[in-house]
TrEMBL record:
Protein's GO biological process: protein localization to plasma membrane
Native species: Elysia marginata
GO cellular component: plasma membrane
UniProt xrefs under InterPro entries: ARM-type_fold, EFR3_Homologs
Organism superkingdom: Eukaryota
Protein name: Protein EFR3 homolog B
Length: 636
């Protein structure tokens, strides 16, 4: 045996010399040709395989012993690191063929070891070629055993971990499209055999994790593009009836993939994290019948909304007397986030309201929606958003009172959710009167209305699993009633906020209808509420000001314009602004009305004048028709 090892060592040293000599000398035989690589690479892999059972944990640092396996590894590393762009595939092809022919994929440890060596040795700018070769290998094994495909994707995952940003190459979407295609093929061809299906599920899980790791190596703006790309893989639907026809297994895996990519994204601005092409279809999917899918959608929202690590602290619905115990992080929000909420907030509120009305909700669904509402309050806590969230809470309460289709457990849970959210909102906003009012209602519920508090409604131990259990249960009231003192009254909430200077005029306006998207399909669109529409017909120079005379442009005027720093103009504009503000603050109401009527009449007169000019028919003078006499020679 020792003699065989010496022969193998001699052969490997010979190969090492050939590699170093021929690669550095252009006059020698081209060693990168397939006829040579098909002999050299399998020989090295065969010797490396001998030591696979005694593999060192430090793959990138082989031992310097006179062992054929480690000597083969040194030669293999030397070969890989010398490969250029045009030659790297000549080395990788024999590696893939060798693993196929000897069925070494399922023995994942050896395949991972080989490709770790390749990824550590190859020049960093060529790392994406290794990834592309592995993706092509998956294509060849589309109909192979799921264990083989799982092993190849596992190797791909390890390669991506090492490449750290150089793995995807120029065609980012092609990589994701390839992996998503195999995910869909696996689901479409799922086996009825339980053991086989378990292997297929492992393959699908590995694909999801690999996509997440790919996304981790991309800049944030590309992660958003990837999420929109994945969203485009959902079946196209135009109404709620078609949403229910989606393949559940495919949809769940796509949502899991979205969640995996979202966890790698670091949100800076909500408008960038939620482009309309991504947010609108995501919210539509949040209304599917399956409660598990709805939870994943809420988790995606949590991941992208939460910029300060608050989501895990709001995982369960509770009623803390002091939210300081939760150690929540509240920071000043940007104006961009407020603009985002003005544009897309109505869609978020409406879908939250619709989600709570679904009869298939479980405790996890209610907790996920509660977390979403709290994150909106924490992340975009401007005054306007606070009023809208209060308005949403009142609508949820009214919905629970009017609904006859929901079971008693759901109605109690919804009222408890509203109570917990208002308790949280009152303490976050630090409005003392609001907090005292919420506390007063909660104290009333403690006396006879405990089933409307989170400690009872979200206690999984006392929730009946069927209608018969509910009828026999002594925990829930036999006859449900909702006393006035247990309800949060809109008038009292408005009074509490009005004292702080907030505009509560819209608090009494319900979310009566679904916001309608303008444009087509999933394109960008503004969503507005009827109560928020504010149309002003105002010309650019509608405010009273003296008309400027058009000055003659001369060389002197141009010099004066260049030398002027604009301070005089700014002073005039500031003075004009102050005059307008003063007029609207101090002038009598009748004077303001008269001024507005004058502007309106002026506008109407101009409009009538323009329409008259357009409608006037132009009298065209047609030329008179006269006879023309030609000479006889000109006429036949």
């Amino acid at each position: 045996m020792e003699g065989d090892d010496k022969l193998r060592q001699a052969g490997l040293r010979g190969l090492q010399g050939v590699v170093r000599k021929t690669i550095s000398d252009d006059l020698q035989v081209n060693i990168w040709e397939a006829i040579h690589m098909d002999k050299i690479v399998p020989s090295l892999l065969y010797n490396m395989q001998e030591d696979s059972l005694e593999e060192s944990s430090e793959v990138e640092s082989p031992r310097e012993e006179d062992d054929p396996a480690h000597l083969a590894e040194v030669v293999f590393r030397d070969l890989i690191c010398r490969a250029s762009y045009g030659n790297i595939k000549s080395v990788l092809s024999p590696v893939l063929i060798h693993l196929d022919n000897h069925e070494l994929w399922v023995q994942t440890d050896f395949a991972i070891k080989v490709f770790k060596i390749i990824m550590f040795s190859v020049q960093s700018q060529y790392g994406y070629l290794v990834v592309q070769m592995l993706l092509s290998q998956i294509d060849k094994h589309t109909k192979s055993d799921p264990r083989i495909k799982t092993s190849i994707v596992t190797v791909l995952y390890e390669a991506v971990l090492i490449s750290a940003g150089n793995s995807t190459g120029p065609s980012v979407l092609e990589v994701f499209n390839n992996l998503l295609r195999h995910l869909r093929i696996s689901i479409d061809r799922k086996s009825s055999d339980i053991n086989q299906r378990n292997e297929e599920i492992k393959f699908e899980d590995v694909i999801v994790n690999t996509i997440g790791e790919f996304a981790n190596n991309l800049p944030d703006y590309q992660k958003i593009e990837i999420m929109m790309f994945i969203m485009g893989k959902f079946p196209q639907f135009t109404n709620e009836e078609e949403i229910g026809k989606m393949d559940k297994q495919l949809s769940v895996n796509l949502l899991r993939t979205l969640l995996k990519v979202a966890t790698k994204y670091k949100t800076v601005s909500l408008s960038q994290a939620f482009p309309p092409e991504f947010l609108h279809p995501l919210l539509r999917i949040s209304l599917v019948e399956d409660p598990g899918m709805r939870i994943i959608v809420q988790q995606i929202l949590h991941t992208l909304l939460d910029r300060h690590g608050n989501a895990h602290k709001l995982k369960h619905i509770s009623m803390p007397s002091d939210i300081a115990s939760l150690d929540l992080t509240v920071k000043i929000n940007s104006r961009q986030d407020l603009l985002f909420m003005k544009k897309s907030g109505m869609q978020l509120y409406w879908h939250i309201l619709e989600n709570l009305q679904l009869a298939s909700n479980r405790v996890d669904n209610f907790e996920a929606i509660y977390c979403t509402m709290c994150l909106l309050c924490l992340e975009v806590g401007q005054d306007e958003v606070i009023v809208e969230l209060l308005r949403l809470a009142l609508d949820i309460q009214q919905m629970a009172m009017n609904s006859s289709a929901l079971p008693l457990t759901h109605i109690c849970a919804i009222h408890s959710l509203v109570a917990a959210f208002l308790n949280m909102l009152a303490q976050i906003t630090n409005v003392t009167t609001l907090y005292h009012y919420v506390l007063k209602v909660l104290q009333h519920r403690q006396c006879g209305g405990q089933h409307l508090l989170p400690d009872f409604a979200f206690n999984r131990n006392n929730r009946p699993q069927s209608w018969s259990e509910l009828e026999k249960s002594d925990d829930y009231p036999k006859q449900f009633e909702m006393r006035e003192i247990w309800l949060f009254q809109q008038e009292h909430l408005a009074d509490c906020l009005r004292n702080t200077g907030l505009d509560v005029s819209r608090l009494s306006t319900p979310f009566s209808a679904r916001p309608i998207a303008g444009g087509s399909g999933e394109g960008s669109a503004n969503f507005s509420d009827v109560g928020s529409i504010n149309i002003e017909f105002e010309a650019t120079d509608g405010s009273p000001r003296a008309q400027r005379r058009h000055e003659e442009i001369t060389v002197e005027s141009l010099k004066k314009m260049l030398a002027d720093d604009g301070s005089a103009t700014k002073v005039q504009e500031e003075q004009h602004r102050r005059e307008i503000v003063h007029m609207f603050r101090s002038a009598p109401f009748e004077e303001i009305v008269a001024f507005s009527d004058a502007k309106s009449n002026n506008f109407q007169n101009k409009l009538t004048e323009i329409l008259d000019m357009v409608s006037q028919e132009k009298t065209t003078t047609e030329p008179q028709v006269t006879e023309m006499v030609f000479p006889k020679l000109f006429v036949y």
